[in-house]
Write a structure and sequence with these properties.
Order of helices and strands: EHHEE
Structural class: alpha+beta
Strand order of the largest sheet: 1-3-2
Largest sheet: 3 strands, antiparallel
Helix content: 25-40%
Number of helices: 2
């Protein structure tokens, strides 16, 4: 399996504090993963500090 995280970093919140914004996303979703089985096809939208959807994480089968 493979864990994928894709985040778009091109709006105003990212321009002000990109490391802080990405750190918050990683902390939040890292802690939230325990609520998922983490099997292929699991995944969820990722939101920034203003609750705008900025990406997605997913679990995929490896070829």
């Amino acid at each position: 399996m493979r864990f994928l995280l894709e985040v778009t970093m091109d709006d105003e919140a990212w321009a002000k504090d990109p490391a802080g914004e990405l750190g918050r996303i990683l902390r939040y979703w890292g802690g939230n993963l325990r609520h998922y089985a983490l099997v292929p096809r699991d995944g969820s939208a990722v939101h920034d500090s203003a609750y705008r959807e900025v990406g997605r994480w997913s679990i995929e089968d490896t070829p």
